[in-house]
């Protein structure tokens, strides 16, 4: 019997998780990624709560923990790098600024990719140029000129997805007013295994984090009311970073000196809000559907959890070679939306409060951090808990589907 065919667009965490589960459930799965290979850029991402359970069900938890970046905690530092407040890494599924499971984004996507079934087809260096949703399926035209028909198309292209326009023409991105530059720089003898976070004035912060591949991950954040810097080419972005961080202090000169040669990813922080995550046979997943932003601490958890829910509801709504896509996509939204809504609700003042513009704002922030790091506050888990622990475990995963399709996958 022919198997229903699914095209997934985007081969990062969400796309590869969809491919894992759909492959396991017995679908004929194709993944298209606009880059020529799996992307390596990015820093630590954390997987918490329900996301950890999804990794467990994929048989990947131990492998992911073995790839931990080794970050032992989060330390806020002053102009000289001396600690102001320290928070140890978590030792459970869900809590902490440094979660128990911190893994490089590229490594996580690579691990999941390696678990997809051997008959999962990958098309690198291509993308969807056009699609027509017909009674018989979706006719897809790729940028390479190839045309193919699929029963379903799932879009996991991240926050700036272009294919999202086939589901909704409404503006989906809500900008949070902060740019982030993620760099990989040489590790030096003065680097330790903590996430060091320095607040410069003017809404800027400089962060250094360890990784498990012998380099250091640097993050430059700055608040700005001007949008569109992420649309500049790399040289334009680097010029702006040099200007903005010229007098930022602490490790800023070292990071700026490494800018020209460093692997680099730049983003204008945004959330994605949409009334509907599907239209006809096309559905959105991960950041393309509901980005909560890196400051939520939930992006990757939502990506793997949502991908599991979507693939599972598609399997549940499939009889033979026919998918009741409306039923599947409705259930997917019904199950996932409350979880997404909680994740997208950021603590008051985020991201501005953690990137103060004024001396007074910074002094208040540092006082709050000292209190949160103090023994009594740790005991009641108040401020630190609220700011650093997203609602990752507040979700009941639907059961894995077993049966004909699943057994067809072996
Ligand atoms: C390079 C990179 C680095 C990141 N670094 C961090 C980080 O350091 N910290 C953090 O918290 N989050 C980071 N993120 C975001 C994080 O991966 C997501 O928030 C979360 O894991 C959910 O991922 P996603 O798979 O839904 O989207 P993403 O991880 O954004 O992946 C989208 C994928 O789709 C591909 N794509 C985009 N458009 C098309 C198209 N038209 N056709 C085909 N493929 C397309 C992209 O190349 C990418 O591989 C990064 C994302 C990327 C792409």
UniProtKB/TrEMBL annotation:
Keyword terms = Monooxygenase, Oxidoreductase
Domain FAD-binding: where? 5-342
* Pfam families associated with the record: FAD_binding_3
GO MF term list: FAD binding; monooxygenase activity
- SUPFAM superfamilies for the chain: FAD/NAD(P)-binding domain
Q: Which PANTHER family match?
A: MONOOXYGENASE, OXIDOREDUCTASE-RELATED
The name this protein carries in UniProt is: FAD-dependent monooxygenase
- Record the organism: Nakamurella flavida
């Amino acid at each position: 019997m022919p198997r229903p065919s699914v095209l997934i667009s985007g081969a990062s965490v969400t796309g590869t998780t969809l491919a894992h589960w759909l492959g396991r459930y017995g679908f004929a799965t194709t993944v298209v990624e606009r880059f020529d290979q799996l992307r390596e850029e990015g820093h630590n991402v954390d997987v918490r709560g329900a996301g950890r359970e999804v990794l467990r069900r994929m048989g990947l938890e131990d492998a992911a923990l073995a790839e931990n970046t080794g970050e032992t905690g989060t330390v806020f530092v002053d102009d000289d790098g001396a600690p102001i407040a320290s928070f140890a890494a978590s030792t459970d599924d869900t809590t902490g600024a440094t979660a128990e499971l911190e893994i490089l984004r590229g490594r996580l996507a690579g691990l999941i990719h390696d678990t997809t079934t051997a008959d999962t087809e990958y098309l690198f260096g291509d993308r969807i140029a056009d699609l027509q949703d017909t009674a018989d399926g979706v006719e897809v035209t790729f940028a390479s000129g190839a045309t193919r028909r699929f029963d379903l198309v799932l879009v996991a292209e991240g926050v700036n997805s272009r294919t999202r326009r086939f589901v909704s023409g409404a503006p989906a991105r809500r900008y949070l007013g902060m740019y982030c530059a993620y760099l990989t720089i040489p590790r030096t003898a003065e680097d330790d295994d903590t996430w060091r976070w320095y607040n410069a004035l003017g809404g800027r912060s400089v962060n250094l984090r360890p990784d498990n591949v012998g380099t250091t991950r640097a993050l430059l954040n700055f608040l700005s009311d001007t949008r569109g810097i992420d649309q500049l080419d790399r040289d334009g972005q680097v010029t702006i970073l040099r200007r903005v961080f010229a007098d930022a202090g602490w490790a800023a000169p070292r990071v700026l000196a490494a800018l020209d040669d460093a692997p680099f990813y730049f983003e204008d922080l945004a959330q994605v809000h949409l009334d509907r995550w599907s239209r006809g046979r096309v559905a959105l997943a991960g950041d393309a559907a509901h980005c909560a932003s890196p400051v939520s601490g939930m992006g990757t958890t939502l990506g793997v959890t949502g991908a599991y829910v979507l693939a599972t509801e598609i399997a549940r709504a499939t009889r033979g070679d026919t998918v009741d896509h409306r039923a599947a996509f409705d259930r997917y939204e019904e199950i996932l939306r409350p979880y997404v809504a909680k994740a997208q609700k950021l603590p008051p003042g985020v991201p501005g409060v953690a990137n103060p513009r004024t001396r007074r704002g910074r002094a208040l922030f540092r006082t709050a951090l000292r209190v949160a790091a103090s023994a009594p506050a740790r005991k009641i888990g108040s401020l630190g808990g609220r700011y650093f622990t997203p609602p990752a475990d507040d979700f009941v995963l639907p059961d894995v589907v077993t049966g004909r399709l699943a057994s067809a996958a072996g």
